[in-house]
Structures are given as C-alpha cells and as structure tokens.
Amino acid sequence: MRFGLTKFSTRTKLVVGAIALVLAGLSHASGTLVGGGATLPSVGYVGSNAASGNLQFFGTGTGTGIAAGSLFGVYAAQTGNPGVSYCLTGSGAGKDVLAGGTIGANTYGVQTNCAKNTNGVVNGFGAPAVSRTDLLQPSFAAADSPLAATDVANYQTGHGSTSDFPTQFPVIAGAVGIGFNLTDSTGAQVTASEANFSTVQVCQILSGTVTSWSDSRLTSAFTLPSGRTIPATAINVQYRSDGSGTSFSLSNYLSNNCGSAGLSNVFETSQNFTGTGGVVSNFTSLPLSNWTGSSGNANVANAIANTASSVGYVETANALALNLAKLQLADVAGKSPTANFGTPLAIASTDVVYNEVINPTNATNGTAQVEALTSPPSTECIALVPPTDYAIPGSRGGIVPSTSYPIVAVSYFLGNAQGNISTDLTSTANLVDAPYNATITGSVTTVGAGTGLAFLNITNAGTNFTATSPGACLH
C-alpha cells in the first residue's frame, strides 16, 4: 500500500509538472507579429514576393509567403519565435498606422485591411488576416524616412497620451537605384553596363532641366558601340506617388549634392516627391505631363520597364527581384548599386543622436535638419542617424565609404515603448533585435553583396545602441 501511494504520488507530480509546463508555455505564447511600412527593404524582410504586386505577406503561401532565407523567415525559424505579417504601405503610411487614428484625410489602424482605400492609401496592416483581432496597436513598423516631430505628435494623439512614445532604431541600408528603359538609334536596348550618370546629370534630369535623352549634357553618360547613338526622345520620369522613404533618401542625396549642378532652385528633402514641400516643389513646372507617379517600389520599377524612354528611382533589391529585361540599373558616379553595395555599413557612436527628429522645415539649401524633441522621453529609445551623415560618400559621418554606390537609404524599425501585449513582448523584442543578431543575419540570403541591401555594423555604436537596446525599449 505504501508502495502504491508512493507510485501514485510520483505520477501525480509528473502530471502536475507537465500541466505547469504547458501553462507556462501558453503564458508566453505569441501570435503572429503584425507590422508594415517601408517597401524599400521589403525584399530583405520577406523575400522576392515583396515585388509580386501583393501587399501583405505572411506564412508560406504562393506569392504572399515569407521566404525562408529572408530576415523574417530566419527569425521565425528560431526556436520560440512566431511568424510575422508585413504590409507594404510605404514609410509614411507605416508611421501613421503605428500612430493610429485619423491623420489628414485617412484613418489608420492595425485592424484595417492591408489594401488601398478610396484615396489610394494603404491605411492598415491587416491584423485580422492572421487572426490578431486582439491587437490595439501594431507590433512594429518600418520606415526609411525617420520620425519627424509631426510623426511623434500624431503618435501621441493616436495613443491618447503625451507620455507615450514610439521607439526607433536603424536596422538596414539600401541602394536607391536609377533605373532606365532606353533603346538606341538601332532599336537595341541600352544596358546597365553602357550607362553611368554623373551626380550632376541625375540632378539635371530630376529637376526637369534636361528633358531629352539626346541633350548634349547627357552625352558622357553613355558608352555605346560605334554607329549607335541616343535618339532624340523625351525623358519620361517615373516617381513615387506615396509618402516614401525611397523618395526621402533620394532627395537627401539630391539636396546635398546638386548645389554645383547649376539648377534654378534646390531640391527639398522630403518623403513626398511632389506637392507642397515635396522633393521637386521648388521647380514650379514639375511634374511635367510625361512624369508619372506610382505607389511602391515594385510599381515604379514596372512603370519604368513598361514605358519607353523612361527613367526613375527604385530600391535596387525590388528591381532585381522583378527581373525585368527592360529595367536597367545605371551606375552613378562610376559606382554600381549591386557590385559596389552590400557590405555592412559601420555605425559609430558619433553617427547616432537620441530623442532628435526631423525638423519639418529644411535648411535653405533643402537639406534635412534635425531638432531635439521639446518634451523627450526619459529613455534614449529614439535613435536617429542624421540624414546628412550618409548623403555624401566618404565624408561627414563616414557611414558610406567613398568606394560605395552613392545614393543610400537608412531604414528603421519602429516600435511602441508602452502598451505591448505581454505575451508578445519577448518575441517582439527578439524581432527588433534580429538585425543585430549574428545567428540570424548570418543565415539571411536576401541582404548582402549583390542584393542592394546591407546590414549595419553597430560594434562601435556605443552603450546606448547595443544588439539588445531596441528590444529593451519595449514595455
């Protein structure tokens, strides 16, 4: 009898222990993490499906699944991490969905479908599609146009408290390619190896100063076989119509480098290409009738490929993923967006400022200015690489070496300092830390040499920016 009681007691303990383990696991279980935003790094985050024309990516479905070798795919494969859903809204709308509420003419929210509304804006991250109807705010967002003072104000309005703050840390860099579709006098496709635009020529084209491919100011951009010439056709410009970090990054390059191009005015650093305060807003005749806007990097790439005599700007990884024969990526200043980009960019402690944001008013030369938040958080969880530091290779902050392709974007993960669901907290922290986790990045195949994307090296970024700082900022 005594033996039986001992045996029963042992079994009971085992059962109770097993139940406790299950309950403990459930208490820390996380559902799919829901985010979205920037299209520029999206191929790195989800794989080549990001260029498919679909908007929301999760799971393994054809055309909408997340690739095993992508950042989110490798992250999800790590023990204990959930899957990720990512919606391509563009950087501007991504920040607005993180904020939530009505901003301008649109109402944003994590539960709103990942689809264009009647204004042509993707104003939600589509949480119901992955059964996350419990979320009141996104798990994260991504943007290549860093937080401005207005974004922080929108966030606090949407969250109903001036004590609530977003978090922001740089995670990846991208090469903004100058794509073109041009045939020569014989009807042959002009290829990437035959095109090398100088900085001045890029400035002249995108300011509308040069409007014909046969303009003598573009002669030096092309190296064609004997007997072939560039025809006298109008230059059709393709640009981003949505609030875009790609536009912000291109304009950061233009405003910092076009002073010597002899233009009638200056480019404005902005996430909006046209409109009041937009990139080309000081060139009053723009956009011309043959300039066409498209939403998202993939759509701009397709517009270039489908429109003869076109030129435009598109993130390189998106262009490569589409594999469009008529879309060629030119060298700029003698550097290729594929061959001369992909090595991790080193971030030093002097390259990062905290609790500073983009000033809504640019300098008189159009370059972005940063300003301290008037009522900053007590933590240093809003990290910013000043845009001028990566606008000119080999100078200033030194983030972009002189050997690099020159038009560079720095992209960020944004999160919520407060209000994260407790069962999601660990997995969300793991996600925002993933770009600095060598175990994860070492297995990612969508970022690195030849991809148009590069991770950041934060070894010398200082004590406020370590591999676990972003996750530690979430509560």
Share of helix, binned: 10-25%
Q: What is the number of beta strands? A: 20
The averaged pLDDT comes out at 93
CATH domain class name of the largest domain: Alpha Beta
What is the CATH topology descriptor of the largest domain? D-Maltodextrin-Binding Protein, domain 2
How many independent structural domains?
2
Rg value: 24 Å
Largest sheet: 9 strands, mixed
Ranges with pLDDT <50 over ≥5 residues? 1-28
CATH-defined architecture of the largest domain: 3-Layer(aba) Sandwich
Shape summary: globular
Distance between the ends: 53 Å
Q: What is the fourth-level CATH superfamily of the largest domain?
A: Periplasmic binding protein-like II
Indicate the proportion of strand residues: 15-25%
- Number of helix segments? 12
- Provide the structure class: alpha/beta
